[in-house]
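User: Predict structure, ligand magnesium ion.
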Amino acid sequence: MQTLTGVGVCAGRVIGELVSMPEPVSEPAEGLTLRDEEPEAAVARLQEAAAAVKAELKRRAEAATEKDAADVLKSTALMAGDKALLKNAAKRITAKQLAPERALWEAATDYAEQMRSLGGYMAERAADIEDVRARLVSQLQGLPMPGIPQQDTPFVLTAEDLAPADTATLDPAKVLALVTSGGGPQSHTAILARNLGLPAIVAARGVADIADGTAVFVDGATGEIRTEPGAGEQELVDAWVRSAGARSAFDGRGVLSDGTEVPLLANVGTPEDARAAAAAGAQGVGLLRTEFCFLGRDKEPSVEEQVEQYTAILESFAGKKVVVRTLDAGADKPLPFLTDIAEPNPALGVRGYRTDRTVPGVLARQLEAIARAEEATDAQVWVMAPMIATTSEARDFAQMTAAAGLRVPGVMVETPSAAVTADQILRHVDFVSLGTNDLTQYTMAADRMLGSLAELNNPWQPAVLRMVQSTVEGARRAEAEGAGPRNVGVCGEAAADPALAVVLVGLGVHTLSMSPRGLSAVAAVLRSVDLGTAQSLAALAVEQASAEEAAAAVRAELPVLAELGL
Ligand code: PEP
Ligand code: MG
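Assistant: Predicted complex:
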Protein backbone atom coordinates (compact mmCIF):
# COMPACT_ATOMS: atom_id res chain seq x y z
CA MET A 1 0.00 0.00 0.00
CA GLN A 2 1.20 3.48 -0.87
CA THR A 3 0.08 6.53 1.11
CA LEU A 4 0.35 10.08 -0.20
CA THR A 5 -0.63 13.20 1.66
CA GLY A 6 -1.78 16.47 0.19
CA VAL A 7 -3.87 19.25 1.66
CA GLY A 8 -7.47 18.24 2.26
CA VAL A 9 -9.80 21.04 1.14
CA CYS A 10 -13.23 19.43 1.28
CA ALA A 11 -14.13 16.63 3.70
CA GLY A 12 -15.48 13.31 2.49
CA ARG A 13 -14.20 9.74 2.20
CA VAL A 14 -14.50 7.61 -0.91
CA ILE A 15 -12.95 4.60 -2.60
CA GLY A 16 -12.77 4.66 -6.37
CA GLU A 17 -10.65 4.22 -9.45
CA LEU A 18 -8.24 6.95 -10.35
CA VAL A 19 -8.72 8.59 -13.75
CA SER A 20 -6.47 11.45 -14.85
CA MET A 21 -7.29 14.46 -16.98
CA PRO A 22 -5.81 14.14 -20.47
CA GLU A 23 -2.75 16.29 -21.16
CA PRO A 24 -3.62 19.63 -22.80
CA VAL A 25 -3.41 19.51 -26.59
CA SER A 26 -0.27 21.08 -27.99
CA GLU A 27 -0.01 23.07 -31.19
CA PRO A 28 0.81 20.89 -34.23
CA ALA A 29 4.19 21.91 -35.70
CA GLU A 30 4.18 25.00 -37.90
CA GLY A 31 4.35 24.02 -41.58
CA LEU A 32 3.25 20.42 -40.87
CA THR A 33 2.22 19.22 -44.34
CA LEU A 34 0.43 16.22 -45.80
CA ARG A 35 2.54 13.11 -46.14
CA ASP A 36 0.97 10.17 -47.92
CA GLU A 37 -2.51 11.61 -48.08
CA GLU A 38 -4.31 13.32 -50.95
CA PRO A 39 -5.83 16.73 -50.05
CA GLU A 40 -9.37 15.45 -50.80
CA ALA A 41 -8.91 12.54 -48.39
CA ALA A 42 -7.50 14.89 -45.73
CA VAL A 43 -10.51 17.22 -46.10
CA ALA A 44 -12.83 14.24 -45.78
CA ARG A 45 -10.96 13.15 -42.62
CA LEU A 46 -11.35 16.64 -41.18
CA GLN A 47 -15.07 16.56 -41.84
CA GLU A 48 -15.42 13.13 -40.27
CA ALA A 49 -13.50 14.31 -37.21
CA ALA A 50 -15.79 17.35 -36.91
CA ALA A 51 -18.89 15.17 -37.20
CA ALA A 52 -17.57 12.76 -34.56
CA VAL A 53 -16.72 15.55 -32.11
CA LYS A 54 -20.10 17.18 -32.69
CA ALA A 55 -21.93 13.92 -32.09
CA GLU A 56 -19.95 13.18 -28.92
CA LEU A 57 -20.59 16.65 -27.51
CA LYS A 58 -24.31 16.36 -28.27
CA ARG A 59 -24.38 13.00 -26.51
CA ARG A 60 -22.67 14.52 -23.47
CA ALA A 61 -25.08 17.49 -23.53
CA GLU A 62 -28.07 15.14 -23.48
CA ALA A 63 -26.56 13.15 -20.62
CA ALA A 64 -25.65 16.25 -18.57
CA THR A 65 -27.69 16.65 -15.41
CA GLU A 66 -26.90 20.34 -14.90
CA LYS A 67 -28.49 22.85 -17.29
CA ASP A 68 -25.39 25.10 -17.36
CA ALA A 69 -23.15 22.19 -18.32
CA ALA A 70 -25.62 21.07 -21.00
CA ASP A 71 -25.70 24.59 -22.46
CA VAL A 72 -21.90 24.83 -22.56
CA LEU A 73 -21.71 21.44 -24.32
CA LYS A 74 -24.46 22.28 -26.80
CA SER A 75 -22.85 25.51 -27.89
CA THR A 76 -19.46 23.79 -28.21
CA ALA A 77 -21.11 21.08 -30.34
CA LEU A 78 -22.50 23.73 -32.68
CA MET A 79 -19.11 25.35 -32.97
CA ALA A 80 -17.50 21.97 -33.85
CA GLY A 81 -19.69 21.82 -36.95
CA ASP A 82 -19.20 25.49 -37.88
CA LYS A 83 -19.17 25.59 -41.70
CA ALA A 84 -17.01 28.73 -42.04
CA LEU A 85 -14.36 27.26 -39.75
CA LEU A 86 -14.22 23.92 -41.59
CA LYS A 87 -14.22 25.60 -45.00
CA ASN A 88 -11.34 27.83 -44.00
CA ALA A 89 -9.36 24.81 -42.75
CA ALA A 90 -10.16 22.82 -45.92
CA LYS A 91 -8.83 25.69 -48.03
CA ARG A 92 -5.53 25.57 -46.16
CA ILE A 93 -5.32 21.82 -46.81
CA THR A 94 -5.87 22.13 -50.55
CA ALA A 95 -4.01 25.40 -51.17
CA LYS A 96 -1.03 24.90 -48.84
CA GLN A 97 -1.00 21.08 -48.52
CA LEU A 98 -1.18 21.47 -44.75
CA ALA A 99 -1.93 18.45 -42.57
CA PRO A 100 -5.56 18.71 -41.39
CA GLU A 101 -4.64 19.23 -37.71
CA ARG A 102 -2.31 22.11 -38.62
CA ALA A 103 -4.86 23.60 -41.06
CA LEU A 104 -7.59 23.43 -38.45
CA TRP A 105 -5.32 24.88 -35.77
CA GLU A 106 -4.49 27.90 -37.95
CA ALA A 107 -8.10 28.46 -39.08
CA ALA A 108 -9.44 28.29 -35.52
CA THR A 109 -6.68 30.51 -34.13
CA ASP A 110 -7.42 33.23 -36.74
CA TYR A 111 -11.13 32.90 -36.01
CA ALA A 112 -10.59 33.24 -32.25
CA GLU A 113 -8.40 36.31 -32.74
CA GLN A 114 -11.05 37.95 -34.94
CA MET A 115 -13.67 37.32 -32.27
CA ARG A 116 -11.43 38.81 -29.59
CA SER A 117 -10.86 41.96 -31.62
CA LEU A 118 -14.64 42.47 -31.96
CA GLY A 119 -14.97 42.63 -28.17
CA GLY A 120 -18.10 42.16 -26.05
CA TYR A 121 -20.14 39.01 -26.47
CA MET A 122 -18.16 37.98 -29.56
CA ALA A 123 -14.90 38.07 -27.59
CA GLU A 124 -16.37 35.66 -25.07
CA ARG A 125 -16.76 33.12 -27.89
CA ALA A 126 -12.98 33.05 -28.50
CA ALA A 127 -12.41 30.62 -25.62
CA ASP A 128 -15.13 28.32 -27.04
CA ILE A 129 -13.37 28.27 -30.41
CA GLU A 130 -10.10 27.36 -28.72
CA ASP A 131 -11.91 24.59 -26.88
CA VAL A 132 -13.26 23.20 -30.16
CA ARG A 133 -9.80 23.54 -31.70
CA ALA A 134 -8.34 21.32 -28.97
CA ARG A 135 -11.12 18.74 -29.38
CA LEU A 136 -10.80 18.54 -33.17
CA VAL A 137 -7.03 18.34 -33.13
CA SER A 138 -7.15 15.53 -30.54
CA GLN A 139 -9.71 13.66 -32.64
CA LEU A 140 -7.51 14.00 -35.75
CA GLN A 141 -4.48 12.77 -33.81
CA GLY A 142 -6.34 9.86 -32.26
CA LEU A 143 -5.89 11.23 -28.70
CA PRO A 144 -8.55 11.20 -25.97
CA MET A 145 -10.90 14.18 -26.05
CA PRO A 146 -9.74 17.02 -23.77
CA GLY A 147 -11.80 17.95 -20.76
CA ILE A 148 -13.20 15.84 -17.93
CA PRO A 149 -12.92 12.16 -18.95
CA GLN A 150 -16.22 10.39 -19.55
CA GLN A 151 -16.94 6.94 -18.23
CA ASP A 152 -19.96 5.11 -16.98
CA THR A 153 -18.75 4.31 -13.47
CA PRO A 154 -17.95 7.15 -11.05
CA PHE A 155 -14.23 7.78 -10.52
CA VAL A 156 -11.64 9.81 -8.60
CA LEU A 157 -10.41 12.57 -10.92
CA THR A 158 -6.76 13.61 -10.81
CA ALA A 159 -5.21 16.55 -12.58
CA GLU A 160 -2.37 18.97 -12.21
CA ASP A 161 -5.03 21.62 -11.74
CA LEU A 162 -8.41 22.29 -13.32
CA ALA A 163 -9.14 25.09 -15.80
CA PRO A 164 -12.34 27.10 -15.17
CA ALA A 165 -13.83 25.69 -18.40
CA ASP A 166 -13.33 22.12 -17.13
CA THR A 167 -15.07 22.90 -13.90
CA ALA A 168 -18.24 23.98 -15.73
CA THR A 169 -18.69 20.46 -17.04
CA LEU A 170 -17.62 18.55 -13.95
CA ASP A 171 -20.54 16.33 -13.02
CA PRO A 172 -20.54 15.59 -9.27
CA ALA A 173 -22.58 12.45 -9.95
CA LYS A 174 -19.67 11.02 -11.98
CA VAL A 175 -16.71 12.39 -10.08
CA LEU A 176 -16.36 10.90 -6.58
CA ALA A 177 -13.46 13.08 -5.51
CA LEU A 178 -10.90 15.48 -6.91
CA VAL A 179 -7.15 15.19 -6.29
CA THR A 180 -4.73 17.68 -7.81
CA SER A 181 -0.96 17.65 -7.70
CA GLY A 182 -0.88 21.44 -8.03
CA GLY A 183 -3.15 24.18 -6.69
CA GLY A 184 -3.17 25.51 -3.15
CA PRO A 185 -5.89 25.24 -0.50
CA GLN A 186 -7.05 28.78 -1.31
CA SER A 187 -7.00 28.34 -5.11
CA HIS A 188 -10.19 28.69 -7.05
CA THR A 189 -10.16 24.93 -7.81
CA ALA A 190 -10.39 24.34 -4.07
CA ILE A 191 -13.20 26.87 -3.79
CA LEU A 192 -15.06 25.10 -6.59
CA ALA A 193 -14.71 21.69 -4.91
CA ARG A 194 -16.18 23.12 -1.73
CA ASN A 195 -19.04 24.70 -3.68
CA LEU A 196 -19.86 21.29 -5.14
CA GLY A 197 -19.32 19.53 -1.83
CA LEU A 198 -16.86 17.24 -3.59
CA PRO A 199 -14.22 15.53 -1.41
CA ALA A 200 -10.99 17.15 -2.56
CA ILE A 201 -7.26 17.21 -1.95
CA VAL A 202 -4.82 19.67 -3.50
CA ALA A 203 -1.01 19.74 -3.64
CA ALA A 204 -0.84 15.94 -3.52
CA ARG A 205 2.66 15.47 -4.81
CA GLY A 206 3.21 12.12 -6.50
CA VAL A 207 -0.40 11.48 -7.43
CA ALA A 208 0.47 11.87 -11.11
CA ASP A 209 2.68 8.77 -10.78
CA ILE A 210 -0.19 6.48 -9.76
CA ALA A 211 -1.48 4.63 -12.83
CA ASP A 212 -4.97 5.27 -14.14
CA GLY A 213 -7.38 2.57 -13.05
CA THR A 214 -5.71 2.08 -9.64
CA ALA A 215 -8.21 1.81 -6.77
CA VAL A 216 -7.60 4.48 -4.14
CA PHE A 217 -9.05 5.61 -0.82
CA VAL A 218 -9.38 9.41 -0.56
CA ASP A 219 -9.97 11.32 2.69
CA GLY A 220 -10.68 14.98 1.94
CA ALA A 221 -10.44 15.94 5.63
CA THR A 222 -6.98 14.54 6.38
CA GLY A 223 -5.61 14.93 2.83
CA GLU A 224 -4.70 11.23 2.61
CA ILE A 225 -4.70 9.07 -0.53
CA ARG A 226 -4.07 5.32 -0.06
CA THR A 227 -3.67 2.70 -2.77
CA GLU A 228 -4.89 -0.90 -2.32
CA PRO A 229 -7.73 0.06 0.02
CA GLY A 230 -8.89 -2.80 2.24
CA ALA A 231 -11.45 -3.45 4.98
CA GLY A 232 -10.04 -0.66 7.19
CA GLU A 233 -10.54 1.96 4.49
CA GLN A 234 -13.99 0.60 3.65
CA GLU A 235 -14.94 0.98 7.33
CA LEU A 236 -13.79 4.63 7.24
CA VAL A 237 -15.97 5.24 4.17
CA ASP A 238 -18.94 3.52 5.86
CA ALA A 239 -18.47 5.61 9.01
CA TRP A 240 -18.52 8.75 6.86
CA VAL A 241 -21.76 7.67 5.24
CA ARG A 242 -23.31 6.75 8.61
CA SER A 243 -22.54 10.17 10.10
CA ALA A 244 -24.18 12.03 7.19
CA GLY A 245 -27.27 12.81 9.24
CA ALA A 246 -25.33 14.66 11.93
CA ARG A 247 -23.51 16.72 9.31
CA SER A 248 -26.38 17.55 7.05
CA ALA A 249 -28.78 19.29 9.37
CA PHE A 250 -28.15 23.04 9.59
CA ASP A 251 -31.07 24.63 11.34
CA GLY A 252 -30.23 28.18 10.26
CA ARG A 253 -28.64 29.27 13.55
CA GLY A 254 -24.92 29.23 14.29
CA VAL A 255 -24.47 28.96 18.05
CA LEU A 256 -21.97 27.63 20.60
CA SER A 257 -22.97 25.16 23.33
CA ASP A 258 -23.25 28.04 25.84
CA GLY A 259 -25.66 29.95 23.61
CA THR A 260 -23.11 32.41 22.16
CA GLU A 261 -24.42 33.36 18.72
CA VAL A 262 -22.04 33.00 15.76
CA PRO A 263 -24.07 33.91 12.66
CA LEU A 264 -23.14 31.63 9.77
CA LEU A 265 -23.33 33.34 6.40
CA ALA A 266 -22.71 32.30 2.81
CA ASN A 267 -20.24 33.26 0.11
CA VAL A 268 -22.04 33.70 -3.22
CA GLY A 269 -21.27 34.95 -6.71
CA THR A 270 -24.49 34.74 -8.71
CA PRO A 271 -28.30 34.81 -8.24
CA GLU A 272 -28.35 30.97 -8.43
CA ASP A 273 -25.73 30.77 -5.68
CA ALA A 274 -27.83 33.12 -3.57
CA ARG A 275 -30.94 30.96 -3.96
CA ALA A 276 -28.96 27.84 -3.05
CA ALA A 277 -27.46 29.61 -0.02
CA ALA A 278 -30.87 30.70 1.23
CA ALA A 279 -32.16 27.16 0.77
CA ALA A 280 -29.21 25.84 2.79
CA GLY A 281 -30.24 28.03 5.74
CA ALA A 282 -27.50 30.69 5.49
CA GLN A 283 -28.23 33.51 7.93
CA GLY A 284 -27.25 36.06 5.30
CA VAL A 285 -24.46 36.63 2.79
CA GLY A 286 -21.04 37.41 4.21
CA LEU A 287 -19.38 37.80 0.81
CA LEU A 288 -20.96 38.56 -2.53
CA ARG A 289 -18.09 38.34 -5.01
CA THR A 290 -19.55 40.77 -7.57
CA GLU A 291 -16.72 40.10 -10.03
CA PHE A 292 -18.11 36.56 -10.46
CA CYS A 293 -21.17 38.12 -12.15
CA PHE A 294 -18.98 39.64 -14.83
CA LEU A 295 -15.90 37.39 -15.31
CA GLY A 296 -14.53 37.38 -18.85
CA ARG A 297 -16.31 40.63 -19.83
CA ASP A 298 -14.13 43.05 -21.64
CA LYS A 299 -16.53 45.97 -21.17
CA GLU A 300 -17.84 47.43 -17.95
CA PRO A 301 -21.41 46.20 -17.34
CA SER A 302 -23.95 49.04 -17.46
CA VAL A 303 -25.43 50.35 -14.21
CA GLU A 304 -28.81 48.90 -15.28
CA GLU A 305 -27.36 45.45 -15.81
CA GLN A 306 -25.61 45.59 -12.45
CA VAL A 307 -28.80 46.71 -10.69
CA GLU A 308 -30.59 43.73 -12.23
CA GLN A 309 -27.93 41.22 -11.11
CA TYR A 310 -27.57 42.57 -7.58
CA THR A 311 -31.33 42.83 -7.13
CA ALA A 312 -31.74 39.20 -8.18
CA ILE A 313 -29.21 38.23 -5.51
CA LEU A 314 -30.59 40.47 -2.73
CA GLU A 315 -34.10 39.14 -3.29
CA SER A 316 -33.11 35.77 -1.79
CA PHE A 317 -32.25 37.46 1.52
CA ALA A 318 -35.12 39.79 2.38
CA GLY A 319 -34.68 41.16 5.91
CA LYS A 320 -31.18 39.63 6.17
CA LYS A 321 -27.65 40.98 5.92
CA VAL A 322 -25.89 40.84 2.55
CA VAL A 323 -22.28 42.01 2.40
CA VAL A 324 -21.63 43.16 -1.14
CA ARG A 325 -17.98 43.35 -2.10
CA THR A 326 -17.07 45.81 -4.85
CA LEU A 327 -15.28 44.37 -7.88
CA ASP A 328 -12.13 42.46 -6.93
CA ALA A 329 -10.42 42.23 -10.29
CA GLY A 330 -6.82 41.24 -10.83
CA ALA A 331 -4.40 38.36 -10.23
CA ASP A 332 -6.33 35.12 -10.83
CA LYS A 333 -9.60 36.99 -11.56
CA PRO A 334 -8.81 39.34 -14.45
CA LEU A 335 -11.53 41.68 -15.73
CA PRO A 336 -10.17 43.10 -18.98
CA PHE A 337 -11.93 46.44 -18.47
CA LEU A 338 -10.18 46.97 -15.15
CA THR A 339 -6.86 45.17 -15.02
CA ASP A 340 -3.71 44.87 -17.07
CA ILE A 341 -3.03 41.18 -17.62
CA ALA A 342 0.59 41.89 -18.54
CA GLU A 343 1.58 42.94 -15.01
CA PRO A 344 4.74 41.06 -13.99
CA ASN A 345 3.52 40.37 -10.46
CA PRO A 346 -0.26 40.64 -10.47
CA ALA A 347 -0.95 39.46 -6.91
CA LEU A 348 1.02 42.50 -5.76
CA GLY A 349 -0.31 44.72 -8.50
CA VAL A 350 -3.25 46.93 -9.30
CA ARG A 351 -6.08 44.78 -8.02
CA GLY A 352 -9.21 45.16 -5.93
CA TYR A 353 -9.82 48.70 -4.62
CA ARG A 354 -6.59 49.87 -6.30
CA THR A 355 -8.25 49.82 -9.74
CA ASP A 356 -10.19 52.93 -8.70
CA ARG A 357 -6.93 54.84 -9.24
CA THR A 358 -6.21 53.45 -12.69
CA VAL A 359 -9.77 53.27 -14.05
CA PRO A 360 -11.72 55.89 -12.08
CA GLY A 361 -15.50 55.90 -12.38
CA VAL A 362 -16.17 52.14 -12.38
CA LEU A 363 -16.34 51.95 -8.57
CA ALA A 364 -18.63 54.99 -8.25
CA ARG A 365 -20.99 53.54 -10.85
CA GLN A 366 -20.96 50.18 -9.09
CA LEU A 367 -21.83 51.80 -5.76
CA GLU A 368 -24.72 53.59 -7.48
CA ALA A 369 -25.96 50.24 -8.81
CA ILE A 370 -25.65 48.61 -5.37
CA ALA A 371 -27.59 51.47 -3.76
CA ARG A 372 -30.35 51.15 -6.36
CA ALA A 373 -30.55 47.38 -5.82
CA GLU A 374 -30.78 47.96 -2.06
CA GLU A 375 -33.68 50.35 -2.59
CA ALA A 376 -35.47 47.80 -4.75
CA THR A 377 -35.28 45.03 -2.11
CA ASP A 378 -35.62 44.46 1.65
CA ALA A 379 -32.13 43.08 2.23
CA GLN A 380 -29.82 44.87 4.70
CA VAL A 381 -26.94 45.85 2.46
CA TRP A 382 -23.42 46.23 3.83
CA VAL A 383 -20.76 47.14 1.28
CA MET A 384 -17.03 46.51 1.42
CA ALA A 385 -13.90 47.11 -0.63
CA PRO A 386 -11.30 44.41 -1.35
CA MET A 387 -7.50 44.75 -1.01
CA ILE A 388 -7.37 47.70 1.35
CA ALA A 389 -3.86 48.52 2.58
CA THR A 390 -4.14 51.91 4.27
CA THR A 391 -6.44 53.80 6.61
CA SER A 392 -6.80 56.57 4.02
CA GLU A 393 -8.15 54.07 1.49
CA ALA A 394 -10.74 52.93 4.04
CA ARG A 395 -11.66 56.56 4.76
CA ASP A 396 -11.98 57.41 1.05
CA PHE A 397 -14.10 54.33 0.44
CA ALA A 398 -16.41 55.26 3.33
CA GLN A 399 -16.86 58.70 1.77
CA MET A 400 -17.69 57.20 -1.61
CA THR A 401 -20.25 54.80 -0.14
CA ALA A 402 -21.88 57.64 1.82
CA ALA A 403 -22.05 59.73 -1.37
CA ALA A 404 -23.86 56.82 -3.05
CA GLY A 405 -26.36 56.67 -0.16
CA LEU A 406 -25.09 53.37 1.25
CA ARG A 407 -25.27 53.20 5.03
CA VAL A 408 -22.89 50.45 6.21
CA PRO A 409 -19.34 50.68 4.81
CA GLY A 410 -16.62 48.15 5.55
CA VAL A 411 -13.38 46.79 4.15
CA MET A 412 -11.71 43.45 3.66
CA VAL A 413 -8.66 42.66 5.78
CA GLU A 414 -6.53 40.82 3.25
CA THR A 415 -3.20 42.55 3.75
CA PRO A 416 -1.01 42.45 6.86
CA SER A 417 -1.03 46.26 6.79
CA ALA A 418 -4.83 46.31 7.21
CA ALA A 419 -4.63 43.71 10.01
CA VAL A 420 -2.14 45.73 12.04
CA THR A 421 -3.93 49.06 11.51
CA ALA A 422 -7.45 47.70 12.03
CA ASP A 423 -8.02 50.05 14.98
CA GLN A 424 -7.45 53.10 12.77
CA ILE A 425 -9.37 51.65 9.84
CA LEU A 426 -12.35 50.91 12.08
CA ARG A 427 -12.64 54.56 13.02
CA HIS A 428 -13.81 55.15 9.45
CA VAL A 429 -15.76 52.02 8.57
CA ASP A 430 -18.29 49.96 10.50
CA PHE A 431 -16.97 46.47 9.91
CA VAL A 432 -14.12 44.39 8.55
CA SER A 433 -14.14 40.99 6.91
CA LEU A 434 -11.00 38.89 7.04
CA GLY A 435 -10.17 37.48 3.62
CA THR A 436 -7.94 34.73 4.94
CA ASN A 437 -7.12 33.44 1.45
CA ASP A 438 -5.25 36.57 0.49
CA LEU A 439 -4.24 37.41 4.05
CA THR A 440 -2.42 34.06 4.16
CA GLN A 441 -0.65 34.58 0.84
CA TYR A 442 0.50 38.07 1.82
CA THR A 443 1.44 37.22 5.42
CA MET A 444 3.42 34.16 4.37
CA ALA A 445 4.67 35.64 1.06
CA ALA A 446 3.41 32.47 -0.65
CA ASP A 447 1.40 32.52 -3.87
CA ARG A 448 -2.06 31.08 -3.14
CA MET A 449 -2.10 29.32 -6.53
CA LEU A 450 1.12 27.38 -5.99
CA GLY A 451 0.78 23.79 -4.87
CA SER A 452 4.47 23.62 -4.00
CA LEU A 453 3.92 26.26 -1.27
CA ALA A 454 0.73 24.71 0.11
CA GLU A 455 2.38 24.13 3.48
CA LEU A 456 3.07 27.86 3.91
CA ASN A 457 -0.13 28.87 2.24
CA ASN A 458 -2.25 27.49 5.01
CA PRO A 459 -4.51 29.65 7.16
CA TRP A 460 -3.58 27.54 10.22
CA GLN A 461 -0.19 29.27 10.13
CA PRO A 462 0.22 30.83 13.59
CA ALA A 463 1.34 34.08 11.93
CA VAL A 464 -1.99 34.27 10.10
CA LEU A 465 -3.86 33.56 13.33
CA ARG A 466 -1.94 36.42 14.93
CA MET A 467 -3.10 38.70 12.11
CA VAL A 468 -6.68 37.69 12.96
CA GLN A 469 -5.93 38.39 16.63
CA SER A 470 -4.52 41.82 15.79
CA THR A 471 -7.64 42.66 13.77
CA VAL A 472 -9.97 41.65 16.61
CA GLU A 473 -7.89 43.64 19.11
CA GLY A 474 -8.02 46.63 16.74
CA ALA A 475 -11.81 46.39 16.62
CA ARG A 476 -11.98 46.27 20.44
CA ARG A 477 -9.74 49.36 20.70
CA ALA A 478 -11.89 51.26 18.20
CA GLU A 479 -14.99 50.31 20.21
CA ALA A 480 -13.34 51.38 23.50
CA GLU A 481 -12.61 54.75 21.91
CA GLY A 482 -16.32 55.13 21.23
CA ALA A 483 -16.52 54.08 17.60
CA GLY A 484 -19.67 51.97 18.17
CA PRO A 485 -20.04 48.21 17.61
CA ARG A 486 -17.52 46.90 15.10
CA ASN A 487 -18.19 43.55 13.45
CA VAL A 488 -15.23 41.33 12.55
CA GLY A 489 -16.14 38.54 10.13
CA VAL A 490 -14.15 35.92 8.25
CA CYS A 491 -15.11 35.20 4.65
CA GLY A 492 -11.99 33.35 3.47
CA GLU A 493 -11.92 29.57 3.07
CA ALA A 494 -10.63 29.24 6.64
CA ALA A 495 -14.18 29.76 7.91
CA ALA A 496 -15.31 26.51 6.25
CA ASP A 497 -12.76 24.37 8.12
CA PRO A 498 -14.77 23.29 11.19
CA ALA A 499 -11.75 23.04 13.52
CA LEU A 500 -10.34 26.35 12.35
CA ALA A 501 -13.79 27.93 12.70
CA VAL A 502 -13.63 27.12 16.43
CA VAL A 503 -10.21 28.81 16.65
CA LEU A 504 -11.45 31.90 14.78
CA VAL A 505 -14.41 32.25 17.14
CA GLY A 506 -12.03 31.77 20.07
CA LEU A 507 -9.88 34.60 18.70
CA GLY A 508 -12.94 36.86 18.86
CA VAL A 509 -14.37 36.75 15.34
CA HIS A 510 -18.13 37.46 15.33
CA THR A 511 -19.41 35.94 12.06
CA LEU A 512 -18.23 33.28 9.63
CA SER A 513 -19.03 33.18 5.93
CA MET A 514 -18.43 30.20 3.68
CA SER A 515 -19.63 28.12 0.78
CA PRO A 516 -23.17 26.99 1.73
CA ARG A 517 -21.98 23.36 1.61
CA GLY A 518 -19.77 24.03 4.62
CA LEU A 519 -22.49 25.44 6.86
CA SER A 520 -23.77 22.23 8.43
CA ALA A 521 -20.37 20.79 9.39
CA VAL A 522 -19.19 24.08 10.87
CA ALA A 523 -22.49 24.49 12.75
CA ALA A 524 -22.27 20.94 14.15
CA VAL A 525 -18.76 21.45 15.51
CA LEU A 526 -19.47 24.94 16.93
CA ARG A 527 -22.50 23.53 18.76
CA SER A 528 -20.16 21.14 20.61
CA VAL A 529 -17.90 23.79 22.23
CA ASP A 530 -18.42 26.73 24.58
CA LEU A 531 -16.69 30.09 24.24
CA GLY A 532 -14.13 29.31 26.96
CA THR A 533 -13.04 26.14 25.16
CA ALA A 534 -12.84 27.98 21.84
CA GLN A 535 -10.66 30.62 23.49
CA SER A 536 -8.26 28.07 24.97
CA LEU A 537 -8.02 26.25 21.64
CA ALA A 538 -7.25 29.58 19.94
CA ALA A 539 -4.49 30.26 22.48
CA LEU A 540 -3.13 26.76 21.89
CA ALA A 541 -3.07 27.20 18.08
CA VAL A 542 -1.37 30.60 18.18
CA GLU A 543 1.51 29.16 20.23
CA GLN A 544 2.39 26.37 17.78
CA ALA A 545 5.45 26.29 15.52
CA SER A 546 3.73 25.47 12.21
CA ALA A 547 0.37 25.18 10.51
CA GLU A 548 0.44 21.38 10.79
CA GLU A 549 1.21 21.48 14.50
CA ALA A 550 -1.52 24.06 15.12
CA ALA A 551 -4.11 21.99 13.27
CA ALA A 552 -2.99 18.76 14.97
CA ALA A 553 -3.02 20.30 18.47
CA VAL A 554 -6.55 21.66 18.04
CA ARG A 555 -7.93 18.59 16.29
CA ALA A 556 -6.66 16.40 19.13
CA GLU A 557 -8.88 18.40 21.52
CA LEU A 558 -12.00 18.12 19.37
CA PRO A 559 -13.12 14.46 19.34
CA VAL A 560 -16.37 15.54 17.68
CA LEU A 561 -14.39 15.89 14.43
CA ALA A 562 -13.61 12.17 14.30
CA GLU A 563 -17.21 11.32 15.21
CA LEU A 564 -18.45 13.34 12.26
CA GLY A 565 -15.65 12.21 9.92
CA LEU A 566 -14.41 15.80 9.52
C1 PEP B 1 -10.01 36.10 0.48
O1 PEP B 1 -8.99 36.58 -0.01
O2 PEP B 1 -10.00 35.41 1.52
C2 PEP B 1 -11.32 36.32 -0.13
C3 PEP B 1 -12.43 35.94 0.47
O3 PEP B 1 -11.32 36.89 -1.37
P1 PEP B 1 -11.07 36.05 -2.73
O4 PEP B 1 -10.94 34.60 -2.38
O5 PEP B 1 -12.23 36.34 -3.61
O6 PEP B 1 -9.79 36.67 -3.19
MG1 MG C 1 -9.22 38.01 -1.57
